[in-house]
Amino acid sequence: MNLLSLLIFIPVLFGIIVLILPSSMRASFKYLTLAATLVQLVISIVIYLNFKTCPGFGGINHEEQFQFVQKLPWINLDLGSMGKMQIDYFVGIDGMSVTILVMSALVMVVAAISSWEINSNLKGFFALFLLLDMAVMGVFCALDFFLFYTFYELMLLPLYFLIGMWGGARREYAAIKFFLYTLFGSVFMLLVMVGLYFSVTDPATGNHTFNIIHMMNPKNYIEGSVFSTLSHATILGMPARTVGFVVLFVAFAIKVPVVPLHTWLPDAHVEAPTPVSIILAGVLLKIGGYGIIRICMCIFPDAAISSAFWVGLLGVISILYGAFNALAQRDLKRLIAYSSVSHMGFVLLGIASATTEGVSGAMMQMISHGFLSSMLFFLVGVVYGRVHDRDIYNFRGLASLMPRYTVYVMIAFFASLGLPGFSAFVAEAFSLAGAFKSSSVNGLLPQWMAVCGAVGILLGAAYLLWTLQRMFFGTVSLKGGEIWKIALTDINFRETAALLPLALLALGLGIMPSLVFGKINDAVLAFVSFLQVK
Amino acid sequence: MIPILSHTDAQTVNFAIWAVVLPFAAFVLNLLLFNKNRIAALVSTVGIVVSLVLAIKVFTSVWNAPVIHAQITWFIIGATKVQAGLLLNNLSVLMLLLVPMIALPVHIYSIAYMKDDEGYSRYFRYLSLFCFSMLGLVVVDNLIMLYAFWELVGFSSYLLIGFWFTRQSAVMANKKAFIMNRIGDIGLLTAIIILFTLFGTFDIQALFGKEGFVQLSNIAAGMWAGPHSAIPAVWQYVAFAGIFLAVAAKSAQFPLHTWLPDAMEGPTSVSALIHAATMVAAGVFLLGRVYPLFIESELTILAIVGCFTAFMAATIALTQNDLKRILAYSTISQLGFMVLAMGIGAYASSLFHLVTHAFFKCLLFLVAGIVIHQMKHIKDDNNLDIDPQNILHMGGLRKKLPLTFIVTIIGALALVGFVFTSGYLSKDGILIQSFVWAEGKSAVFTIVPYFALLTSVLTAFYVARLVVKVFFGEFRLQKVNPHIHIHMGDGNWLYKAPLVFLAICSLFPLFSNSPVFYEDAWIYKSFLPSNFLVRENIYHTIIPILVNLLAVFVMYAAFAFYGKRNAWSFPQTGLLYRISYNEWYIDRFYNRVIVKFVMWFSNLLYWFDKKVVDGLVHLFTRIGKSLATIAAWLDRNIVDGLLHLIAGIVQAIGNFARRFQGGKVQYYLYSMLLVLAFVFIFKMIWT
């Protein structure tokens, strides 16, 4: 049994068990879900440990360099004169995916732990949760565009219901907004995907193929096809390959999210229940960044290089715009949602630089943000679960009431604002270093972008420290008075069990960045040299 | 790049690592085991004692010996190997020794000073964390780790300033300190990135060492060229600006100095260690580390800013009434002297002043702690509503705190730069060299040494004012409230020993055989560049004499003003007084203009986000919905309408035809005839 397939489909197995079990056993659902995520975590760690690193395993555009590959014919239709339709179940990982897999698996465990707070319609919740889990893992492993797209769309369904049914007061608004936003992107992605299918043939069989890796090789494009590098076809008067790149980029930019396509995020986060917020921020946003690297830039490297300036610019705008918006918030969850926008801007900036430092920094930022945003949303959930309020102005002096909780808040805040010793520092520093270096290495980004990005680090300190000072320090004063004081108990064992691993990992990656860099380095080098070949 | 270390060198490196790590071990131990336990103090103190012993060993083997540089690969990113390691040269081992030497007395003092505080063990935990960060900062060999420890120092300072986190003023102060330091951090990060881009390494020795990349680089034709590549010259200036911001933030130079006076909200022992002796000196240390980077004009900027800061802070210190605030401004002023010294090329004097200042300023802060503690006791015992830090309530304390008084005099004289003290050796050296520096430059630059001299005189005045108000005259609080209980004293040995130790270190013998000639000081000599100035200049004689004479005169004047009863006092009105008392309105400007603007801008952007960006999304929704409504209307009225129309027609015809089926035979016959007639007529017309 292939480990990746096991990793992807373990949640489905548990999901079926959850569905079969009678509702009278609903108390066991959360344990089943937790068990599923834990098994997944173990598998992902096994994969991580067995992941081989050396220049021969760079991956990216070399199919034979991918690891843990499984390739099975899935849909094969003989279309007569139109050839054969060939869709494979094709999964495999390289350095770009392996660390994200481990991160996602851990975030899923934390999300499962925080699902304890759900108390209505448990069967539905956990079944959807596990379905989502499967789809997410599938996205990071899929190497066939059709398979990728299937998983990608499959995520939407459970998320829509998870937000729309278990969310806050305006949950329906948030759910539909999220759904339509993402669908808007992916519908056009579908068109590009079909266009690519008709442009690319499998060199071995001569059939049209959805194989992503074949799509990276210009030799596989049929002469005169719409996306062929040689044919210079146009769509609506614009070069077809640029259009393809932009469409895919927009689809993934919505997920990241990149300003100005970000407004679904604060609403979705504010309304979503804590576990869904954790998955949303911890894993789903990374699909955007991952998609840009794996799909957008690798399939359209020429267009990626020529649009790098704009991608970088959007990154810088996201960093600053998100940070300024966070500064204006008084809802803690909304503040963190905007800070996510800001932090994900570094990912975009790093990727756009197309330097080893920048791309490594961007990958690190994705991993680091996965841990830290999960931690932050979990922490918000702790307070919200106790008093059902998140307004920063309604709290003061929580440090005296909940000292251990405050310690974790401080760790999460300082790690997020890039205190050295935590992962975000390494990530942001190298994203910026890459962005700065870019102009002298490949001339893609001007140097001022890095300097502007650095200002985002300052603003990050401003809004997080303000929150700390306003909410946690000072003498105790709560809007809800004595009732809140009794309700606001310090974190319990279950909550510590979720927070401690995240904090330790954020710290561990900050002190030993090689845990990530060591695994991704070959892929990053391959990626950067692949981009330069064009 | 991995040098092979000899056995002794390897041992030295190990000692240095342990000296750095031990306080961290104490921190971890306290965190995990002694969370609420008073043993924490002992753990931290033992940690720093051992650290001190190791630092002495390292110091003796490295001082004036070849540089030791050891490193291992930390991680690999792309093709760049990032190394982690130690760089032990004169500068770093001097700091490595200085930090535990100051930290130890502060630890001992704190055992007594903090004994009644609820957060006793938390305090020592933070203190150990600080010592670790500071020690790490001084020994690391690459810019990434330097930056890491640089921020960790700021972070532990944040924790300690906000130690009493339920106090609103304290948490405001630590937020401010961290954010202002963050401005500097961004500068440093930018500079690091620029250096990395140009030279491809973070290694301090490779960059700034002898024959290092920076020395080999040059600016020509608008490009800054390193050995491998070149970038536009403007980035050299940006790198300088970044370093300058970093220095200004950490060492409280204008315009980023305003966090330091507020940082006095932390426990006084913390102020003594962090905000007087060690952390604030980190900026000067950084200047020392990256010194070869600066070009002539940049050094001049440093000199001018340092001089201005020194002067400005001294003028503010003249009128403050908060004991710690005066000392804070005095610290800013002295740091200004150090930056000035760096700017004029008096590298050795700058570092020398850093060391001497650490001792006497730490001493003065510890004294302030004792005085404030005693005042607080009086306040608590008698339920008075006074500010225990306000010097206007004090007076005549020399009889009640005799030892404290004596050491204060030593510290104060050192701060003034009086002969026989360490401050004389270091500060007068800076003054002399600033005059030498200005000579032969245009008239504008001669302002610098004269302002430095003036600052020195102002220093004498505010120091004398402080000492007189606190220790001379009569106890004003008692005069106002004659019935209060007072029992105060110097305290036990935990208080006394650190004071005496620091006082001894504030005198000349530790630093030089000769009390008069700064050139003889061993620290000074070890940092000298090869082209150092011989004692040939007239300034070398005139300046010290002038400074001391002026100081004596000014101190006497201050004594006369403040010491005597019913003495004449300065008018407390007037523009100059207000500027000084309100700290040049700088903080007010920051709050009212910059902070307000940032908040306004962020609210504007949020409005934009809600109304414009999200508004567009909603507009699309509305357009979609309207289109849907129109489509529905069309569907209902046109498409369906057509259907209904046809149906209606059919129905109408049906209804019409139905009437012919009435069941009456006559009608049928009649209609048959009609149809037949119709057919015949039709056929006739047709043909």
Automatic annotation (TrEMBL), chain A:
<keyword id="KW-0472">Membrane</keyword>
<feature type="transmembrane region" description="Helical">
    <location>
        <begin position="366"/>
        <end position="384"/>
    </location>
</feature>
<feature type="transmembrane region" description="Helical">
    <location>
        <begin position="89"/>
        <end position="113"/>
    </location>
</feature>
<dbReference type="GO" id="GO:0003954">
    <property type="term" value="F:NADH dehydrogenase activity"/>
</dbReference>
<protein>
    <submittedName>
        <fullName>NADH-quinone oxidoreductase subunit M</fullName>
    </submittedName>
</protein>
<dbReference type="GO" id="GO:0016020">
    <property type="term" value="C:membrane"/>
</dbReference>
<feature type="transmembrane region" description="Helical">
    <location>
        <begin position="277"/>
        <end position="302"/>
    </location>
</feature>
<dbReference type="GO" id="GO:0042773">
    <property type="term" value="P:ATP synthesis coupled electron transport"/>
</dbReference>
<feature type="transmembrane region" description="Helical">
    <location>
        <begin position="498"/>
        <end position="517"/>
    </location>
</feature>
<feature type="transmembrane region" description="Helical">
    <location>
        <begin position="6"/>
        <end position="24"/>
    </location>
</feature>
<keyword id="KW-0812">Transmembrane</keyword>
<feature type="transmembrane region" description="Helical">
    <location>
        <begin position="125"/>
        <end position="143"/>
    </location>
</feature>
<dbReference type="GO" id="GO:0048039">
    <property type="term" value="F:ubiquinone binding"/>
</dbReference>
<feature type="transmembrane region" description="Helical">
    <location>
        <begin position="335"/>
        <end position="354"/>
    </location>
</feature>
<dbReference type="InterPro" id="IPR010227">
    <property type="entry name" value="NADH_Q_OxRdtase_chainM/4"/>
</dbReference>
<dbReference type="GO" id="GO:0012505">
    <property type="term" value="C:endomembrane system"/>
</dbReference>
<feature type="transmembrane region" description="Helical">
    <location>
        <begin position="308"/>
        <end position="328"/>
    </location>
</feature>
<dbReference type="InterPro" id="IPR003918">
    <property type="entry name" value="NADH_UbQ_OxRdtase"/>
</dbReference>
<feature type="transmembrane region" description="Helical">
    <location>
        <begin position="149"/>
        <end position="166"/>
    </location>
</feature>
<comment type="similarity">
    <text>Belongs to the complex I subunit 4 family.</text>
</comment>
<keyword id="KW-1133">Transmembrane helix</keyword>
<dbReference type="InterPro" id="IPR001750">
    <property type="entry name" value="ND/Mrp_TM"/>
</dbReference>
Automatic annotation (TrEMBL), chain B:
<feature type="transmembrane region" description="Helical">
    <location>
        <begin position="403"/>
        <end position="425"/>
    </location>
</feature>
<keyword id="KW-0472">Membrane</keyword>
<dbReference type="InterPro" id="IPR018393">
    <property type="entry name" value="NADHpl_OxRdtase_5_subgr"/>
</dbReference>
<feature type="transmembrane region" description="Helical">
    <location>
        <begin position="326"/>
        <end position="348"/>
    </location>
</feature>
<feature type="transmembrane region" description="Helical">
    <location>
        <begin position="228"/>
        <end position="249"/>
    </location>
</feature>
<dbReference type="InterPro" id="IPR001750">
    <property type="entry name" value="ND/Mrp_TM"/>
</dbReference>
<feature type="transmembrane region" description="Helical">
    <location>
        <begin position="186"/>
        <end position="208"/>
    </location>
</feature>
<feature type="transmembrane region" description="Helical">
    <location>
        <begin position="123"/>
        <end position="140"/>
    </location>
</feature>
<keyword id="KW-1133">Transmembrane helix</keyword>
<feature type="transmembrane region" description="Helical">
    <location>
        <begin position="354"/>
        <end position="372"/>
    </location>
</feature>
<feature type="domain" description="NADH-Ubiquinone oxidoreductase (complex I) chain 5 N-terminal">
    <location>
        <begin position="74"/>
        <end position="124"/>
    </location>
</feature>
<dbReference type="GO" id="GO:0042773">
    <property type="term" value="P:ATP synthesis coupled electron transport"/>
</dbReference>
<dbReference type="Pfam" id="PF00361">
    <property type="entry name" value="Proton_antipo_M"/>
</dbReference>
<keyword id="KW-0812">Transmembrane</keyword>
<dbReference type="GO" id="GO:0012505">
    <property type="term" value="C:endomembrane system"/>
</dbReference>
<feature type="domain" description="NADH:quinone oxidoreductase/Mrp antiporter transmembrane">
    <location>
        <begin position="141"/>
        <end position="445"/>
    </location>
</feature>
<feature type="transmembrane region" description="Helical">
    <location>
        <begin position="538"/>
        <end position="562"/>
    </location>
</feature>
<dbReference type="GO" id="GO:0008137">
    <property type="term" value="F:NADH dehydrogenase (ubiquinone) activity"/>
</dbReference>
<feature type="transmembrane region" description="Helical">
    <location>
        <begin position="40"/>
        <end position="59"/>
    </location>
</feature>
<protein>
    <submittedName>
        <fullName>NADH-quinone oxidoreductase subunit L</fullName>
        <ecNumber>1.6.5.-</ecNumber>
    </submittedName>
</protein>
<feature type="transmembrane region" description="Helical">
    <location>
        <begin position="493"/>
        <end position="518"/>
    </location>
</feature>
<feature type="transmembrane region" description="Helical">
    <location>
        <begin position="15"/>
        <end position="33"/>
    </location>
</feature>
